[in-house]
Write a structure and sequence with these properties.
Order of helices and strands: HHEEEEHEHEHEHHHHEHEHHH
CATH topology: Rossmann fold
CATH architecture: 3-Layer(aba) Sandwich
Strand order of the largest sheet: 1-2-3-5-4-6-7-8-9
Largest sheet: 9 strands, mixed
Number of helices: 13
Distance between the termini: 52 Å
Structural class: alpha/beta
Length: about 350
């Protein structure tokens, strides 16, 4: 699995808006690593390995049809901090799948009662420790948004024994997409049990593989009213044929009819037309090598005409475009524009 993670893209210091940079080679000057040196291993996994887990349906994005218990799961508090930047950051652990705990960050702006909620799912190469940086707290405060961050299935922090190391997000694409879409809905079920969030105004940001999952989750769950995706994966026949994310020695296996058939009903291209009525922005960076040009065109063409498709020539252009408001501004404006407008008015006084 490690050689696939070499495709992880560079993070610019503090200015997280350049998350779209899925470069095919690591950058020596990268200020922070997107992945830990080795996956987390939980003793609970070994203890319960002999217990047969409930069978989850990987052919559907619907939680109701997944086979998972749909009742909300209580979060186990791991840490809670009141930060001087003006927010409260919580880390909770949730689990609805055997030996697959999910670390969930909930970052709320100080002084905002029941803020709207933005779910943030980055590319599978990112470690959720990124949500510990001050950037997310300042974004929460600046845009009046509760930021909820977690990692997808088959991401590094959710890679547990006894899963073989040869397996990774793309090799297990059907599982990764479907279970992550289920996870989003289970996270929303948990958030609804809290009394400090506005669950009538929920949006989601997704980047790379997280962008594909955001589209699937929004199609499956009406609670998500807005999505903002950067270089989302999709159009699987073209993506698997041309993506630089895939090692050449493995590509042939992913182009076999049986593999393509498994993911055919999990293609974001098929679900984008169903998102009519939701606020949607698709950001595409032309020189991003992870999603081939043909797939980019198919994704943009499948979107409802009312949505905003933004093209940037490179990562620097995209970074400059969102620098002032940050990665959360557009989503916050769709969910609760009055909160943001009031904040800007107060700042101008």
């Amino acid at each position: 699995m490690c050689h696939k993670l070499a495709v992880a893209f560079t993070l610019l210091t503090l200015t997280i808006p350049s998350l779209q940079a899925q470069t095919t080679t690591p950058t020596p000057q990268s200020p922070q690593s997107a992945t830990p040196e080795k996956p987390l291993v939980f003793e609970e996994a070994a203890k319960s390995a002999a217990v047969e887990p409930p069978k989850e349906n990987w052919t559907t994005i619907s939680l109701a049809k997944s086979g998972l218990p749909t009742q909300s799961v209580a979060g186990v508090p791991m840490s809670k901090s009141e930060l001087p930047e003006g927010c409260t950051r919580e880390l909770l652990r949730l689990e609805w799948r055997q030996a697959d705990p999910i670390d969930l960050y909930v970052i709320r702006p100080t002084g905002v009662e029941n803020p709207p909620v933005g779910l943030f799912l980055l590319n599978y190469t990112f470690d959720t420790n990124i949500f510990r940086t001050d950037y997310w707290c300042s974004q929460s405060k600046q845009n009046g948004l509760a930021i909820v961050g977690f990692g997808s299935a088959l991401s590094w922090q959710r890679f547990h024994t006894p899963r073989p190391m040869r397996e990774w997000f793309v090799s297990e694409l059907q599982e990764a997409l479907s279970t992550s879409a289920h996870d989003v809905q289970m996270v929303l079920n948990y958030l609804e049990t809290r009394k400090d969030l506005d669950m009538k105004h929920v949006g989601m940001y997704g980047q790379g593989s997280g962008g594909a999952i955001a589209i699937l989750a929004a199609a499956a769950d009406s609670r998500i009213s807005a999505i903002d995706v950067t270089d989302p994966w999709g159009d699987w026949p073209e993506w698997l044929k041309g993506s630089k994310q895939i090692p050449e020695e493995e590509r042939a296996a992913y182009l076999k009819p049986e593999f393509l058939q498994k993911v055919a009903n999990l293609d974001p291209v098929n679900y984008l037309p169903q998102l009519e009525g939701k606020s949607i922005r698709i950001q595409q960076v032309t020189d991003d090598p992870v999603t081939p040009s043909a797939a980019k065109e198919k994704i943009a063409g499948a979107a409802p005409r009312t949505i905003d498709v933004v093209h940037y020539p490179d990562k620097e252009a995209q970074h400059k475009s969102v620098f002032l408001g940050g990665i959360t501004e557009w989503l916050a404006n769709q969910l609760h524009p009055r909160t943001v407008m009031a904040s800007e008015f107060d700042s101008a006084k």
